[in-house]
């Protein structure tokens, strides 16, 4: 019995070590992604509340004639049915971060719908497919 418990403990320790990455030449590498180190990869509202007020501010600053970036994107643009995060990244892209969303209710959704309908009816000059500031 004592031998079985010792054998079981050794097997558990050995199997747990199998999932620990081995350091390369005795040096432990950082698991932090380069994208997290570069502040230019994330926009103005990264890790902040991503609500209609924030989106309207980013939309107001967006220039479709300039290249798309975390600091220049249309927050109302969709790609494969998805909306961008607070830096213009879409789900599936390795830099996408699930944004912090505010509370929402039906009445506020109706107000937001009016704003979105106005944006759709009156697109910014230069907001055409293939423009440098557009995803599509």
TrEMBL record:
Keywords: Signal
Region (Disordered): 82-101
Top-rank taxon, per record: Eukaryota
Signal sequence, renumbered to the chain: 1-18
UniProt KW Signal keyword: yes
The protein, known as: Uncharacterized protein
């Amino acid at each position: 019995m004592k031998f079985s418990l010792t054998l079981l403990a050794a097997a558990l320790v050995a199997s747990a070590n199998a999932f620990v990455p081995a350091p390369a030449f005795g040096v432990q590498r950082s698991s932090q992604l380069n994208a997290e180190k570069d502040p230019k990869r994330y926009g103005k509202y990264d890790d902040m509340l991503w609500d209609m007020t924030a989106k309207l501010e980013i939309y107001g600053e967006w220039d479709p004639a300039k290249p798309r970036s975390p600091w220049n994107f249309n927050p109302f643009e969709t790609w494969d049915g998805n909306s961008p995060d607070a830096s213009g990244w879409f789900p599936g892209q390795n830099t996408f971060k699930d944004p912090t969303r505010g509370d929402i209710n039906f009445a506020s959704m109706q107000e937001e719908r009016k704003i979105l309908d106005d944006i759709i009816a009156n697109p910014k000059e230069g907001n055409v497919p293939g423009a440098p500031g557009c995803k599509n």
